[in-house]
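Attaching the record inline, Q. Sequence:
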Amino acid sequence: MFANKNIAILTHCDYRRVIRALLLAQSVPAEIEVICAVNGTNQDIRMRLGDRKVPDNLIFVDSERQYIYPANALRNIALESATREWVFYIDCDFIFCTNFWDVLRQRATELGNAADKVCYCPVALCDPRGEFLAQPDNPRQVEVESESDHRPPRDWEDCDGACLFKNHKMYFSMPFGSGFAPYEITDAMKRLRNIVPSEPWGLLKRKHAVFADEDFRSGPMDKQQAVSALLDCGVRFFAIPDIFIFHLWHPESLDNKYDRVRNECLWARRHRDTSRTYLLIGLGGILPHGLEGRLQNTMSRSDEQAVIKDSALAGTKASCEFGNSQNHNSPVVLGEVIVGPHAISRDLFARHLRLCVFFSSPAYYRETYNCSATARGNQAPSDYVRLFSESGNIHDAIASIENVSALFHLGDPNRCSRMFRNLTGVGVPVEWFEMEKCLATRARLRENQDRLLYPNEYLLYDFARACAGSFR
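Structure, as predicted:
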């Protein structure tokens, strides 16, 4: 069973909220490590903390400050920084109750699931009216607050003004408080995942943790996506109703309306359903050079990591079924990645697949075609538009079909690598998504001229490129 020295709490915050990370660290035993990924530099952190002493168990991991809060990217930074056997996901706005870890350890022992993929989830309580806040409501409260501004409850008898956190009443369906027994909430979470995705926080083994989809930013749906990824990975969730974490009150923020719409669209296209089958399609026939072979070679190492299998899907060239990786830096989500066919057709949109569409500049396609024609000793055909015509319905697909999960612009291999990990949980090197360098160089040199000679080809390319940006 877990010991305090084997636990790391993973949290994240904006540099203005580091006071809350400090309070979180003070509420746990000194042997428990608290890793807080911060949207801000070390200088930002020092300026906000002033001369306050940082607890020895609190580790800040800084990053370049971004205007839109990168919630899931920070979650991944914290996970990558963790080295202990057990991790506890939590937001920095929470504080643990007294005797939390002793009770949790006892309940986990009673459940007897320590060797399984289990997440132990305490009750989350909140303070919707600010009753546990010493100072009056202040729109800039988070920026100016100090440790003395909060008086969070530490025992059940102190919780008179608190209530169950937001939608948790849909999952924590039984009474809670001292003396109530644990119960499983996995089925309820699966049943409601497409209606009200769940967000219980909890303790699980680090090797069962998964990377969150970094395209989810300031919310909502960011932590719900991360929890749903654990569900997809086969993690079971147990409510521990006689211990609690307490959410520190703050005024509601109204400045993320754009991200709200954007995240809802991302959820619908990528994560709403339980299907984890991804079909990789090359717009115009081009996929990253060697991607198929690399996936096959890498994902066939062991049953724990992946299994290569035949697929019944017509036109499929190869498929890889991904399981959990033993490397804690590259955990993956259960699912299947199928390579091919290399053209988009209308019938693909009727399948229960998640489509990943790769594309590049038409100039690159022409260079590729010219090279293959030269190798055959033939003249390259002049009607290059014919090569693109098979994918002519991409406009409708991108605009209206929900199972187009992502568009991969191969001119940006760094982003391709990150998006691939977002979707599948598989961390693969950036170079896997790089096109053949010599052809890519020649394509860049001829693109301006090609835009004048073949303008219709670039209508489709520019449309796909603009839509790829909207998926960010």
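The first helix runs from residue 18 to 26. The chain is about 35% helix and 20% strand.

More tomorrow.
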